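Fold it.
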Amino acid sequence: MSDRTGRPDGLQAWTELSAAVDAVRVAINRDLQAEAGLTLADNLVLCRVAMAPGRRLRMVEIASGLNIAKSAVTKTVDRLEQRGLLDRDRDRDDRRTVYASLTSEGQKVFEAAQPSFVASVDRHFTRHLDPAHIRALHQLHAAVLADPPDRPRRDGERRSR
């Protein structure tokens, strides 16, 4: 099937979902910067590290958990380290492994930012949805990630439908 523009329905749905996510991310980023002095990327990195055991996480795990490039994590951690919110240290046994650790100041800033973050998500996203929409989004997430797009394939293997 296709929409009135002749685009396949799936492509149009993808385009619309991407536009909605982008608009919400921009609005949340703007709110966080104004209200908490953090970018959305800062907040998401702080959240990952704050929720990790011992408030310490490998840089590669931050990148993987947020589905962003390692270079983007490095730049964000650089900013947070300069502000005294994270510390960076190398693994004693494997010097290639770098960890980011939440400082006590980072914990305070992260905790102080969460009410603004939650309010912004509600203002720009949740308030537009009823419980059925939220269930559908959970189902969409589960369906798409049941066979992740970046999962390595064996020769000739196709994505399941």
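Helices lie at 9-36, 40-51, 59-66, 70-82, 104-124, 131-145.
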